[in-house]
Amino acid sequence: MVKQMYPKLTINLQYFKENVAAMVERCDKCGITIAGVIKGTTGFPQCAQAFKEGGAKIIASSRLEQIEDTIEYGVGLPTMLLRIPMLTEVDEVVRLCDISLNSEVAVLKALNEAAAKQNKVHKVIIMADVGDLREGFWDKDEMVEAAVFVENELKNLDLAGVGFNVGCWGSIEPTPDNLNELVSIAERIEARIGRELEYISGGATSTLMRVIDGNVPERINLLRCGEGIFLARDLDVFYGYDMSYMHQDVYKLYAEVIEVRDKPTHPVGKIAIDCFGHKPVYEDRGIRRRALLAMGRVDYGSIEEIFPVEKGVSLVGAASDHTIMDVEDAERRLEVGDIVEFDVNYASLVYLSASRNVNKEFI
Ligand SMILES: *Cc1c(COP(=O)(O)O)cnc(C)c1O
Predict the structure, then answer these.
(1) Architecture of domain 251-362 in this structure
(2) pLDDT of 6
(3) pLDDT per residue over 49-86, tens digit each?
(4) Which DSSP string corresponds to 95-124?
(5) Pocket test for ligand 1, best of 16, 24, 27, 37 (most atoms within 8 A of CB)
(6) What pLDDT is stored for residue 178 in this prediction?
(7) How far, in Å, from the CA of 227 to the mean position of ligand 1?
(8) What residue ranges of the chain have pLDDT lower than 50?
(9) Domain boundaries 13-237, corresponding CATH code
(10) Can you tell me whether residue 337 is helix, strand or coil?
């Protein structure tokens, strides 16, 4: 197998663990359990292990292969599937996951049959849609009926609770209002089934804002968090929360310079389309010094989502496997073979961690 050092993504597991512990401590005070979400880091089982060591009580992902890796690695925590199960995967969901999030009665019935075949009881959380418009019951009467149906008719399912997700498609913020709406749906169900639900799961990373503000309704007791813990970035960048008590450099990206030259900044010749079929606009800044990096959009997605640490450089553009960096005003004189460091965000991390071309190093 070919051995390549760069591009390289480093993952500091100690920092990762410390970030989890910092957030678990804050959530504990509000009676909230954290399910550590590993999908943003392509389910590295080392990260699932760090979630466990930091105090997360469940490992969650949208993808079964990541959950399987976690189990095989021996992490040993209960596992949760975040994406509504496909009908074609219900057997595997029951085999690999202790809990799944659900919004379709047909899927619940299929999960029940799969659980019966495997002699198991599978936990389900029924999802409400409070306005973000991705998954979940829109009609809350229908949701209550579905929950009661699970409780009374589906013997191999355990109705563990209710949940919602916001801030993913519709960019909706979790508020005391929509969280209370979820609690009241839970209480309607509880009144019908005559017992308390185990979980009321009021969202993901964005609900950590309510934990920090101290305005989470008391009965919310489970959050499913990834990004806000291991990158500790969005709550700071998008909402202005002070996250300085958490490490924002769990992940670092390194790329190697393969060419350094003075070149025009505007392409020369008849302009047609770029490699992805787009027609970009090029600014003419005269002749400038540029460094070419052996890393491209296949590895990280878009240049807007990676952040050079090097002083005085900027990213000009990229193709599948190349990145062009303006180094005219760089503090360090860059040469072929130099290594350049970047910070990453969620949008680039999902690609970088999944890319086969990127060397991953746990430190
Ligand atoms: C992705 C996802 C999460 C976790 O999102 P983060 O932003 O990484 O905290 C939680 N719940 C569901 C349903 C998800 O799909």
Answers:
(1) Beta Barrel (2.40)
(2) 98
(3) 999 999 999 999 999 999 999 999 999 999 999 999 99
(4) HH-SEEEE--HHHHHHHHHHHHHTT--EEE
(5) 37
(6) 97
(7) 8
(8) none
(9) 3.20.20.10
(10) coil
